[in-house]
Amino acid sequence: MNCSPNAICKAALLLSTKSKAMVKQIGSRSMLMKMANMLPNRRFAAWLMDRAMVEGDHIELNVKDGTSLRLTPEDVYLILGIGKQRGSLKKLPTVGQSQYDNAYDELFKILKYAHDKWILPQKKEKAKVDPRSTSEEKGASQVNLQSTSDADKVMGNDQDEEDKEKGASDADKGKVKAKDLTKAYKRKVFTTKAIQHVLEHKNDKEMKNQVNDELAIKFFCILVSNKLLLPTASNQIPKPVIEAVIDTEKLKAVDWCTIIYKALRDGIRSWKEKYVETKNPQITGCVYLLIVSILLFSFCVQKHLCIVLSEWELN
């Protein structure tokens, strides 16, 4: 389960005062506030996914026999505190390809430095202690690549046209394969873990002059999307999420309630479909909404029961 409000809380503490002010300006003030340190384990989240149903365009959470909760897009704001002003964009904002490529290269350069300096040494040390971890990581990487590809489709981002070319010569196929390997490597570096290291070590001698407040916000918004609002099954960042933060001003026009709700709804549908094929499907979407909803329901039931019992004792 990739949903982790605690990761957002930790990242928010690492932002400068100026960065926090800029986050508030784009309508994400609530992402700077304290959230749950821990979520129930994956087993509980899987139980909630089992009990959640998609009825038409609505999410119904079966609390017990004969009792269900209906979640609406408005609940996104009530629970997460984001999306009060319903923007006009029903999908994540996009930019031109050249603008995307330039911004991606800038972000990747910083993430690669963080990956090589802090993540890679840990992996090498782990491999010395447990050689099996290397092969396990390769297997996980393949799953991550597939999950990232699935996430791109869910968020409305199909494969690049260049990857769909057919009838290419052997030389062209070799070039495409090399390009795919480069993409795979970049995706492996472009992870939430690398972003966390960037924010944590932004005063590092090499990064100090590269990671300004504007870049810090981009990284923070990516983390918010991938760890809370639109979590996928992978720690690798989908292209639509990267593209959305290139011009952070556009985030003001996003209808977060609709986008987050739809992603959770699609995640529930996917869970139901894949549960037939595998008994351990990936959990995607903001499962935090389901967890808070059922906890609030339980609290209200308990409070009502206490009131009934106190009235009964008085009588």
Q: How would you describe this protein?
A:
The structure is a single chain. The protein has 315 residues and is mainly alpha-helical. It has one domain. Helices cover 61% and strands 5% of the residues. It has twelve helices and three strands. The protein has a three-stranded antiparallel β-sheet. Helix 1 packs antiparallel against helix 9. It is globular.
Summary, kept brief:
This protein is mainly alpha-helical and 315 residues long.
Topology:
Elements: H1 5-13, H2 17-25, H3 42-51, E1 52-55, E2 58-64, E3 67-71, H4 74-80, H5 97-129, H6 132-154, H7 170-189, H8 192-200, H9 213-229, H10 239-244, H11 256-277, H12 287-314
Antiparallel strand pairs: 1-2, 2-3
Number of strands: 3
Largest beta-sheet details: 3 strands, antiparallel
Based on CA inertia axes, which overall geometry fits?
globular
Portion of residues within helices: 55-70%
Gyration radius, in Å: 21 Å
Series of H and E elements: HHHEEEHHHHHHHHH
Strands of the widest sheet, in order across it, are 1-2-3
- Give the termini separation: 49 Å
What are the main properties of this structure?
about 325 residues; mainly alpha; three-stranded antiparallel beta sheet; disordered C terminus
